[in-house]
Amino acid sequence: MTIGIFDSGLGGLSVLKEIVTTLPHYDYVYLGDNARAPYGGRSAERIYEFTRQGVEFLFEKGCAVVILGCNSASADALRRLQQEWLPTTYPDRRILGVIIPAAQEVAQHYADKKIGVIGTRATVESGAYGREMEKSMGGPARIEQVACPLLVPLIEEGWEKTVPAKMIVKKYLRALKSKQISVLVLGCTHYAFVKDIIGRIMGENVVIIDPGVCAARALKIYLEKYPDIESRLEKGGACHIYSTDMSERIRHLAQRFWKAPLSIERVSIE
Length: 270
Known about the structure:
Rossmann fold; 2 domains; globular
């Protein structure tokens, strides 16, 4: 069996890269729902249904555990999938997300700091980061959240290093800088690709939390904690990439994000 990573598009390749770097000897299957991306502006019910379809595809491909690389999916679908769908359909499989590991990282090391979160509208409006941080802290947290809907299309167009793009990033981050936050959580998989730009704007005294890095560490601990799941995983170092849509733009974007050629197979999950 394998480890699956699901994302609404190709931003989750940042999560896959961190996981493969941390745990290189396992086999992986990645699915990006590019035909219906982005999820960030969709309703919670639609995000849930799309995510369920994606996870089911990965389970049918033999994944023992699936990580929801998409923050919007982690915010609006994870708990419901774990509590309502998984026990009756795939009781021997597991679904994990990227929000809880990042929230736990903040709670463990920065609970007394002013915390900022940037993400899609769906992620910010869900309040998932705040809930999970306060749950891990056992009390209230000082959290400021900002939705940044223009960042994903800018990054996908390759414009993130242009002057207009930097002006937009600065505008989004202005409120967080004015609040003098000490920790900033990148609540969207795409933001990992502009982490350096965000870091320069926020300043060297602000700690940047990448949920992909946190998820990779959490998965390593999880597999150590549950050897019955770990023992079922194939260890050949293979990585299979699937997408629900295919075009030259998608191929180019995947290679730009992965920084190496990738073989992608188109599939349907509806």
